[in-house]
Amino acid sequence: MNILIVEDARDQRLMLSVVLKKQGHKVLEAENGKEALAILQEHQEVRIIISDWMMPEMDGLELLKETRKSDLGRYIYFILLTGNTDHEAVVEGMNHGADDFLAKPVNFDELAARLKAGIRIIELEKQLEQQKQQLVQAIETVEKDLESAAKAQEVLLAQPATIQHVSFDWFFKPSKILGGDMFGYQAIDGETLSFYQLDVAGHGIPSALFSFTLNNILSESSGRGSIVKEKSDQEPFYKVRAPEKVLASLNKRFQVTPESMLYFTIAYGHINSRSGEVTVSQAGHPPPLWIRREKASVEPVAGGGVPIGMMPDMDYTSCTLQFQPGDRLFLYSDGVTECENTEGEQFGESRLLQCLMDTLNDDLKSVIDQVEKNVRDWSELDRFDDDVTYLLLEWKP
Amino acid sequence: MAFEHHDEGHYTVVKIDESRFDASIAEAFKTYVFDLIEEGKSEIVVDLAAVRFMDSSGLGALVAGLKKLSGNGSFSLASAQPAVKDLFDLTSMDKLFKLHDSVDEAVKGD
Question: Which stretches make up the STAS domain (chain B) (predicted)?
């Protein structure tokens, strides 16, 4: 062990030094507190100080205070030498962080025993430090993994696009590295597009994994197992499955057990790119908002059902809207409206409606940016407490 | 203690003593209710009077309780504040749970 002896009396210092060296320790010496502090800074290996109390320049108590105050990056075990069994001195020393005391003249057997106790503490502290380092490394690994998973999640997201006269744009911001929100859109056949936005309960890894799975299932538009189509007797031997039926079959497939609480809310719909007919079905999701350009109005789409997975054999309904050219639909997760300001008030649906009214004549990208700005200004934080996702589509034949 | 319960007739009233029923207490609530159900309690009334905000995890915990009973008993809610009622409305959960205006009304019996 590396020990620093601080003692102004040269003969005493030398004697202690010789004895400790004999016991196999490495010893450094200082004549007073000031010198000792300099040595402590320079010699990182010093872990134990044995210091006299009364010294010129800086005494033992002052050295003790300075040692405890400064950030040395390691714990220093501090043994104070006292002139006699002075109880008040012991109390004062302990109050300032002394670990142990040794009465002068020093009994060398007692010194060896007290050093042993000190070394035990230092070894424990070293072990703790090592374990902390291992934990820090483990957390770094986990975070790196999460970040690559987040990149994988980003790749899953559909890019802003125009498909068959229907344009899509969106905003997606998980509250943690990974989120439980998801959305998507695609052409199912030559005139029907499907779109959805969903929110798995909770956030973090289990929710994100589940949202990955759902994205896979909902984007599978060909093949026998596809959930968005069903078999038919006539050419082309399939038909597009109605939104409420898609939700019912998702509900059949993903029932939560009492032990797992992974359920999700979703708004799922179709748009006929030729006729502008839109059909939307919801399961516990915030109602999508129909932005009507000509009428200059924004209307929540009625209807709703129980979140997917809550209860078996639930029926879902759908709502049909006749779009006029330029009409839009805004789908969003509750992270938008439940975003709280510093007073705990929620952003709410009415502010969202107002924002969409104000941006009636802006292009899709501007609307996306403006909603984000309003929600961010509301929360005044640079992060969100919940996943925030919204999807905007526009029909322009 | 975030939760407490007492018996009223053959009902067990579970009170949530927190203003936020969210992910931070959902798991603990689930465990609490599961323990009651495993002790044989089957007529459960959850008193939501103190809850100002509930999120999807809170809802999930209530459903977990409902599912745990698996039809052998009743699981109803009482004294929900407006914001909590809105959530039930939004998620159509009023189809799954009976919502009572007060605990008294909930334990009056069927």
Answer: 21-110
